[in-house]
């Protein structure tokens, strides 16, 4: 038994890193979910750390379970976002202790993953979107792409009139054949409108229609899934296993898209992977920024039997995500021939840039001796 004796957070508004220190001085690094992460860090120290200090670091599932049980009156998203920081730090520690990447701990053998270039932008013309995706195809070898349609939670009101009908064929035709083409509606459509747009997607050769209807209205999404032949996908916002059971039982989507950090970490995500495998469903996770979430997701996809065909890879730079610049030493997100290498070092295989931590708010919870 090696006890957890200290849990530290380094947080800003956008993300929080977690350092877990054991009684022998060994450490592991993790991350809570992004956005409002300064609030998540407070929850981490109030509702996660007190229950796990002094516990055996090897029992990751037990640590997750005790937090869920002790904080059963707070089963919501923030608890899971905070729990992710603990879980991912403990997996990193285990990998460092065994000298293996997390993917290898899970039995994974894949060393690189096909990535899809994921655009986050809606305030971009169809022509400009097509031009930048074609450039990525030609310069970095991407052969899978996702772009945005609808307006986020838009109630059938597009980002501007006619944008969806323009951006789908413009981008799809510019990218040409031999490329996987996907769109994300971010809960923007009613079922009737989503089915109408879905017909256009099928006509233009798209294979993936993400979150077409308000994600919390499962029956609406299920109606779209039943009506279309291309894959309807979703689940990035979900963390509650009761909801996941409903999604799977009613075939609300064709492909499940959990976010490792929203889920509460790798341990809970692996539980969903098992549920999906039993139902014959594919897992293509959400990983929409270049923080630790994409690294963790790469390790997951390198190991699970029902992994989807690609890793989501955000193509947005400093103009869109200034906070994600320089988070890690080296370049773990290098793309070659449209693929990203799964980090080979122990644990998550990356080292957090100390300069980034210096600008973050620090807090610590420690075991009383």
Structure overview:
By secondary structure, this protein is an alpha/beta fold. It has two domains: 4-99 and 350-366, Enolase-like, domain 1, CATH 3.30.390.10; 103-341, Enolase-like C-terminal domain (TIM Barrel), CATH 3.20.20.120. The chain is built from 13 helices and 14 strands. The chain has helices at residues 37-52, 60-70, 77-98, 102-105, 126-140, 163-175, 191-203, 218-227, 241-249, 260-263, 266-278, 292-301, 354-358, and strands at residues 4-11, 16-22, 27-31, 112-118, 144-148, 180-184, 208-210, 231-234, 255-256, 282-283, 311-314, 335-336, 339-341, 361-366. Strands 4, 5, 6, 7, 8, 9, 10, 11, 12 and 13 form a ten-stranded mixed β-sheet that branches. The model has no long low-confidence stretch (mean pLDDT 97).
* Rg from alpha-carbon coordinates: 20 Å
Strand residues, percent: 15-25%
Q: What portion of residues is helical?
A: 25-40%
Uncertain residue ranges: none
Q: Note the total helix count.
A: 13
Task: Give the terminus-to-terminus CA distance.
Answer: 17 Å
| Secondary-structure arrangement, i.e. CATH architecture of the largest domain | Alpha-Beta Barrel
Q: Biggest sheet, open or closed, and with what strands and sense?
A: 10 strands, mixed
Please report the first level of CATH classification, the CATH class of the largest domain.
Alpha Beta
Shape descriptor: globular
Q: How many individual domains?
A: 2
Average the pLDDT over all residues and give the rounded result: 97
Topology order in helix (H) and strand (E) letters: EEEHHHHEHEHEHEHEHEHHEHEEEHE
